[in-house]
Amino acid sequence: MLGWAVTFLVIALIAALFGFGGIASASAGIAQIIFFVFIALFVIAMIARAIRGRPPV
């Protein structure tokens, strides 16, 4: 999922470089949403792992 966020970020940066404002803002928004979903799932996974008794690596 982090790979998708990076992909959309790169698309947004390339579109911004060429002046496509609508595409750049849409791609940046998608990348931001996917990144925060990834972070939330990562935190939930770390909490679940700690609750089950195995320390995070």
Automatic annotation (TrEMBL):
Residue ranges that the Swiss-Prot or TrEMBL entry lists as coiled coil: none
One cellular component term from this protein's GO annotations in UniProt: plasma membrane
Membrane protein topology class: Single-pass membrane protein
TM spans (from-to): 29-51
InterPro entries from the UniProt entry: DUF1328 (IPR009760)
Keywords associated with the record: Cell membrane, Membrane, Transmembrane, Transmembrane helix
Pfam families per the UniProt record, alphabetical: DUF1328
Localization annotation: Cell membrane
Superkingdom classification of source: Bacteria
Protein family membership: Belongs to the UPF0391 family.
This protein's name: UPF0391 membrane protein FHG71_19345
Source species taxonomy: Bacteria, Pseudomonadati, Pseudomonadota, Alphaproteobacteria, Rhodobacterales
